[in-house]
Amino acid sequence: MDLDQLARLRTPEGVAALDLAGELAGSDELAAASALRARGVPPDLAAAALTQIALRGRAAAKFGADAGRVFLTRAGLEQATREIVATRRAARLRAAGSTALADLGCGLGSDLRAVAATGIRAYGVEADPLTAACAALNAPDATVTCGDAQEFDLSQVDAVFCDPARRSGGRRVFRPEDYSPPWDWVVSLPQRVPHTVLKLAPGIDQALLPPGCELELVSVDGDVVEAAAWCGPLATTPRRATVFRDGVPHELTGTGEQTAPVAPPGRYVTDPDGAVVRAHLVAEFAATHGGWLADSHIAYIWSDTPIVSPFGRCFAVDELLPFSLKRLRATLRDRQVGRLEILKRGSALDVEQLRRDLRLSGPHPASLLLTRTAAAPLAILATPVPPPG
Ligand SMILES: C[S@@+](CC[C@H](N)C(=O)[O-])C[C@H]1O[C@@H](n2cnc3c(N)ncnc32)[C@H](O)[C@@H]1O
Asked: In this protein, which residues make up the domain named THUMP-like (predicted)?
């Protein structure tokens, strides 16, 4: 799509093309294109409408109930923040007293709309003209300009949000110095604006963060989706894990420096959520449940009672075996296990190869956790404890 096609999609002819494309959603691409053309829709408008409808079909997590109305680009959708994460962040900014915020590199406007919806005066700056035009449509309560975020006059705002592009030429980039806007400018923002929030890759090298910031790791239904640095007065704890389960957020905070006790395995083992692990809050999580580690470097938490918590998945240990393929295969055969969930921490084994080598058959399900203690590699056969609530 280009700017001209975006404009045409908003004319009555374009709206009709989008409606038609919507009716054909899910059907064969070529057949849908010829059906649109047979109804008099010019080929390039038909293509733009079909692409838009296909993107909208994948946009529910990022744009919620508005997924069927927003204007999208493929690259913009991939980079957009999920609606529940954006909404929660915006509410926290509002509660902290932010009144005017600049979203510096606002993409399609997922964060920007959430900020504007709280009543904070919202400005979006986006370098790419088509993306900026989409953001202006997607966030009608914000002021969007197309340009370089580094030129924005920060004296107009008391808060900034920056989610730098971690792609270049359609490829992911991993080094912060390759981000856009450039990282040295991004990390200087907290010195210039009181309320600064930076969205980061979950694997960011924590040594690169602005000093004194709070590092928040966010997961949605078990997937770690982002990290955010909350700077200045917005930082209220060194580390925070925000874990969304079925749309409900749960928060765990701490210093990230606590160490957990180490002792032999117990009757239950809990696999902490990735946000808890990456926020270095495993010891804090273990402490709230009287848990411990069996190896100080491995984030499986052991306990003698089940840990029922949104911050991890708990398993009742059925059998604990020193790892041996032959023995594991025999045990699974005896237990008639045909469906096996395999998790691992601290094990170099190739899970899919192992699954093939186990030659599973039988009516029963089971979970297998591969790990090691200081002594040896371990295989834990286990049954999931039902999640809370
Ligand atoms: C990761 S995306 C932002 C996604 C956005 N938070 C959302 O949820 O939709 C980063 C955006 O920054 C834009 N960008 C990169 N460098 C920029 C610059 N110097 N000035 C303005 N925008 C820039 C890119 O075009 C891209 O759309």
From this structure: 312-384
- Of the residues 128, 197, 226, which should be mutated to test ligand 1's pocket, given the most ligand atoms within 8 Å of the CB? 128
175 CA to centre of ligand 1 in angstroms: 16
Is residue 232 pLDDT above 70, yes or no?
Answer: yes
The CATH code that applies to domain 77-236 is 3.40.50.150
Three-state secondary structure call for residue 383: strand
CA distance 56 to 261: 49
Domain ranges of the chain: 3-57, 77-236, 268-384
Per cent of the chain over pLDDT 90 is 87
What predicted TM-score, i.e. pTM, was given to this entire model? Answer: 0.92
pLDDT of residue 389: 65
Ramachandran assignment for 318, one of left (phi > 0), alpha (psi -120 to 50 degrees), beta (any other)? alpha
The residues near 192 (Cβ < 8 Å, ≥ 6 apart) are: 154
Q: How does residue 111 score in pLDDT terms, banded at 50, 70 and 90?
A: very high
- Ligand 1, pocket residues at CB < 6 Å: 76, 79-81, 105-111, 125-128, 131, 148-150, 163, 165, 180-181
Question: Which residue among 81, 153, 180, 198 has the greatest number of ligand 1 atoms within 8 angstroms of its CB, and so is best to mutate?
Answer: 180
